[in-house]
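Suppose a classmate hands you a notebook page containing two proteins, each written out with its sequence and a corresponding row of structure tokens. How would you begin to make sense of it? This section walks through that situation. The first entry is reproduced here exactly as it would appear on such a page.
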Amino acid sequence: MLKCVALTKDYDQQPLLRGVNFEVRADEIVCLLGPSGSGKSTILRIIAGLETPKNGQVFWEGEDLSLVPVHKRQFGLMFQDYALFPHRSVAENVAFGLRMQKLSRDEINQRVNESLQMVNMMTFADRTIMDLSGGEQQRVALARSLAPRPRLLMLDEPLGALDHRLRVRLQGELRQILCRAHIPAIYVTHDHEEAFSVADRLVVLKDGQIEQEGPPTDVFSAPDSAWVAAFFGMGNLFPGRILQTNPLMVAVDGIGEWSVTFDEAELTVGQRIVVLARPQNAVLGAGENELTVTVKESRFKGNYFENVGVTSSGINVEFNSDTRQRAETQLLLHFPSQTVKVLKN
């Protein structure tokens, strides 16, 4: 449906976007995910027609949108600041954009009702925005975005203004609403847990470039780089170098030699790499890829304990366990070779 080709953009004479290419398919929710300053919101504004790229093109079903003005693109855009009229009713807020389109009263009423039903806010139609909670206001803003029946819906940090508890509750609900609407959507966030809950596909951005793209399960299970693993907080990242490739052996700096059952990347002897050892894959006791740590912290996380230990060479190691580990206790633990990943720097 949507195709972005080689988008570039400068800001204060510095490159902000550095050749971004991605597509959005029919009924697909694509999440642009990355830290602040990675170019996420700028991409949305270029697609909407609010900004012009330095180079590159945006296509909708094969049509170049370069000369198509904002109001004729038929794209919906929802910001973190919902920009609702505080003293108007819910129904009046949803109807506002429809009145600008000069639709008939009957058509406006029908679309308002459809949109409010879609977000489960029909019983709130006559309330003012001032009477609503943050989550309810978010639904009204979404209903207003859906009412004009856009060809594409873009959401820029739509849950960012809500507290953590409400944000977590609304993530799954928001995905259900978007799926029911059968409208392709681009969802911008810097929160990877939110992205996992909402998106069909992730586009991970770093410094104005796409670092990795794919379904959330694929990106999480197989990060393409150490930067992606660190961004998602996947756990221990130990620098090292390749000792041999078949079988794959690495020298982990300050720890020792580890075996790795993972040879998908093109690796050469002597190459500097980063080893990913996830805390949930740590096993207490002796085994392959073992190391001794002194426990420094042990935090209860509900159904497991999150621990931090330090090796004799001063390297911090995160590992999970079923029971609390006593501070200053020395433990032997290991990471099975099939759970260890080798990543590029």
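The notebook's second entry, a different protein, reads as follows.
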Amino acid sequence: MAEVAQQLRRSSRLRLALDAIRGREREADSPLDQSISFPELVWAHHLRQKEVYRRELNGTWENEYRRRLKIFKAKHGDIVEAYWCRFEASGVALTEQRLPRRLTNFFRRDSILRLHTATDWRTANAPIVAASLHRWETAAIKAREVLRESSERIALHWILAGSTRLLAFVDRRSRAETDADLDAVVREQQAELARVDNYYARAGENSARIVYFRGMVWGTLALVALVGGAFLLAWAVHWIDPSRRPTYTLFTTIGMGAVGAILSVMTRMAKTDGFSLDFEVGRKSVRFLGGLRPWIGGLFALALYLALKSNLVELLQGRKHGIYFYATVAFLAGFSERWAKVLIEGAFGRPEEKDAKRKPLSTQAARSSERDRW
């Protein structure tokens, strides 16, 4: 019997390992779903609050609320700050879930902040307030998906404060407020939301610049790995000789083109309006675009180097070009794509210029006479 139990444990562990490799989640032992949504937690809190008002300190809903709160915190993390309505089952809360340490964040653990809302019960008779709360929720979604670290924390706490202000205004036993008071609160919240949107735009753009720069670093490392691997492979099969001038000039040209592209982005980032990104496309897309930037600079430099070596493009005629000349040209090609395009187009010619050359002289003379008349 002991051997059978041991074999069952081994097969269970093997099954768990295979599920982990395949990305499958293990089904729960209980057929019932053990997760708790925030509206379910808000409802239990409301019923527990009624018991407290009746001086029932250890009522039925006290234990049920604690049970639901434990399950909710196990999935979403600790509740950092919350507001619970007194006379209706509604509330807002901000949770923080601490992520395990990894190599990328070993010294500073990352956390997931999330705003939870359940306000439809209280705002059923106040559609203006419900619409304003919906705009605050939308701002929280954008801040959670785009921002990180301190800017995300500031924005979400700011949004929670605005949502609490609106919910507290309608959370009254008496209806002594007038439409003028409601309009004043809504206007105040709209102005506050505009300030939050302004902060979100500035923080999102700064965050996108950091992500873009990290992407350039990873793209540079990938370029170095690919070019270096190709160099070692060609050297191993005796295709190239590292001591020859054309060999190290070629690889120097590619490297200087990538360096020029990176420096071009860094100088534009230093300006207020010199570099702009659509940060709402997502961090992965911004990182991917940043990773392409060194490759673009290196390829432009390579193309211009080949054009110079094949005499399609001529610069400083009558002089002997060495490695410093090609490195400088490669750096300029990576630094300014427009400059590289002008030189390359000068080698091959623009399509409209070729069409103009093919047209008869009578047509060109007629067009020149028209320009003279105008």
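A careful reader of the second entry would note: Strands lie at 78-84, 91-98, 111-118.
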